[in-house]
Amino acid sequence: MNHTSRTFVSGAHTGVPPTYEMLKEEHEVSVLGAPRSSAPVTTTVINIHSDTSVPDHIVWSLFNTLFTYWCCCLGIVAFAYSVKSRDRKMVGDVTGAQSYASTAKCLNIWALVLGLFLSTGFIVLMGFACLTLYQIIVKAMQDGRGYF
User: Fold this and answer.
1) Nearest by Cα to 107 from 84, 79, 85, 88
2) In the chain, helix, strand, coil percent, each to 5?
3) Angle CA(101)–CA(105)–CA(110) in degrees, nearest 5?
4) How far apart are CA 26 and CA 9, in angstroms?
5) CA separation for the pair 100, 91 (Å, rounded)
C-alpha cells in the first residue's frame, strides 16, 4: 500500500479549514483522477458584500402625513427625513442614512402616538358633549318648554 498524501487544493485554501465544497472537490479528484488537460487550473473568488439594510420608513411617514390629522406636521418632517435617508442610502453613505432613518422613526413614533391619543381624546370628548346635549334636551322637554 502506498501511504503518501497528495494535496489537491493549493493556493488560496492553505491555512483555511476545509469546507464541504473543498472536500467534495478533493473526493472527485481522488476518484476520477487529476484533470488530463495541460492548462493550469485557475480559481476565481467573488466576494459579495451584503449591504446593511437601512429602512428609510418612507411609507410610514407618508401614512402619518396623510392619515394622522392631528400630527400631520410631524408626519411631514418625518417624511423629509425619510427622503434624506433614502438619498444618503443611494449615495452609499450608510452612516448618514442610518442617522436620518433613526430620526424619521422617532418622529413617526411620536406622530402615531400623539395621533392616537388625540383621536381617542376627541372621541371621548364628543361622547361627553353628545351625552350632555342629550341631557339638556330631555330636561327641557320635561319642563314643558319644548326644544328650547
Assistant:
1) 79
2) 65, 0, 35
3) 150
4) 7
5) 14
Residues 25-59 pLDDT 10s: 666 666 665 556 666 777 887 766 656 678 889 99
Specify the amino acid at residue 61.
S
- Grid cell at residue 134: 342629550
Closest CA to 71 of 105, 108, 103, 106: 108
Asked whether 80 and 72 are in contact (CB, 8 A), the reply is: no
CB-based contacts of 89-98 (< 8 A; 24+ apart in sequence): 89/54, 89/56, 94/51, 94/52, 94/54, 97/54, 97/56, 98/52, 98/54
Q: Are 24 and 9 in contact (CB under 8 A)?
A: no
**Of 83, 81, 54, 78, which Cα lies nearest the Cα of 68?**
78
Grid cell locating 115? 395621533
pTM: 0.57
